[in-house]
Predict the structure.
Amino acid sequence: MRINIIRNMMVGLFILIALDLFYIQVIRGNYFYRQSESNSIRVLPSEGKRGRILDRDGHVMADNRKSFCVALLPQDMKDKREVFRFLAGVLHMKAELLEARYKKNKVASFSPVIVARDISREQAIAVEENAYQYPGLLVTEHFRRDYPFGAAAAHVTGYVGRATEERMRRIESYGYSTDDPVGYSGVEQHYDDELRGAPGGRQIQVNSRGQQVRLLSVREPADGRDLVLTLDIDIQQAAYQAMAGRKGSVVVMDPANGEILALVSSPAFDPNDFSSSEDRAMAAAYLKDSAAPLLNRATSAQFPPGSVFKIPVAAGGLQERKITPQTTFDCPGYFDLGKRRYKFPHAYGLQDFIQAMAHSANEYFFHVGLALGPEVILRYASLFALGERTGIDLPYEAKGTVPQHTAFRQWFRGDTANMSIGQGYVLVTPLQLARLMAAVDNEGRLPSVHLKKSLGGVETAAAVVSSRGAVLRPDVWAALKSGLQEVVRMDNGTAHALNLPGIDVYGKTGTAQAGAGKEDHASFAGVVRTPLRTWAFVLLLENGGSSANACLAVKEMLLDLQARGKLGPEAVVAPLVNGVEAVPSPEVN
């Protein structure tokens, strides 16, 4: 009996073994064959080059250079400590740091882990020559982003870096891998999908020592598309140099089509610091800097416009026939409103519209603003698109604020007076002020603001100046432009320092209060004209004091542009009054 039981058990066991072998070799044979094949096949990825960024004349603003990296393949590694010890000696790095990077970046046993980037060619050769001794050790080729103009164009180009965990969650569905460079800020971020190259790779068969036996297949990487910007790097550099040591921004725009010729934010950062090496000390320093160099002050910062806001107020006063160019008001250096007296540093006496604009007489525009009322001021500010995003092809553009008085529990006549000179609740971006001046030069038509000129060799469709804007009578535009010209041409105009030989400029100064204990913001928003070209621009100094300081910075920029031949010998000459160049008068609002 016992023998039969044992025999039956043995027969059953052999049947189970036979069934299991049949299952493994016949039913799942192909599967396990493929698994064994994968153990001897490696995929070595190759990176597609990121598209270049160029200015309108073909100057390269963002390029790629070949970079060598050290990677480790976890499934092939044997003695990790020995590998890290060897690499530490060759790369002059601590073994503990290399091991920490390995642990942090490891995703899967079959996926290469980069532990050192941008090593020298000599180091790459030394690692490659000894790789046979350390299974799983690889030297891979990548591309490092290079920005030849550095900080001068940083807020336009942006920079590239490795995706953070949060960013990776947002973009992994678009085909990104954890090691792909990702655009941050500027056009690098806005056009990231178009600039990004498609990866390729080699599939090779290796022996048990990890050495290549044969090449199985190759997929060539695809390069990203080149992006040509409307920017002119000469104008960009002149604007950047004019802001040296100053905090603020400059925007230069072609009013005919909305092309941005220069966009500077200061202080700036060097985008090369984000891709130069594994050492992110400089990048971390930017984040901690109280001056906020990563902030794009041209598009993402909001400021009270000060007296530049008198342009839409003046347009409303003239169009609504509250004033004419001959209307006069007394400007004694103060304005009484209810029980409050507003005091100003200059007593101009009786002023007509042209004089008041040239002197930026606040009392005059208090009269105009109070006659219009907040609803009408708001309407004219909206006609010039203040308090609206321009739609520029950059991330994080701020909207600004032109307040609806009805949104406040109480709105006083003093609030209307403040708003009429660009103070109080009104906030705009420097880019909006540049578009405001473009609209003035276009006599109301708003240009479509953009940076892209072509992408992948395909030209951007010609921008059409919008029919939307401030529709004013011809006599209103004539009076408005005449007042803005006298800001520069009149002997004691607030921007007389810009009455330069060979350069024709008109515009408006602005000095805006920044809050208790802080220096005022200073600005000049204007238009420079020659027979061949016209540019609208703004230069704003954050906490820069008087608008006289902004005018001096504008003067530096214009003289630099003239020296570079950008204004050309064909420039209209705006003669000095009595042959004298005066220092601009300080302005409060």
Q: What stands out?
A: The chain has 19 helices and 21 strands. The longest strand covers residues 60-72. Residues 68 and 390 are 42 Å apart (CA to CA).
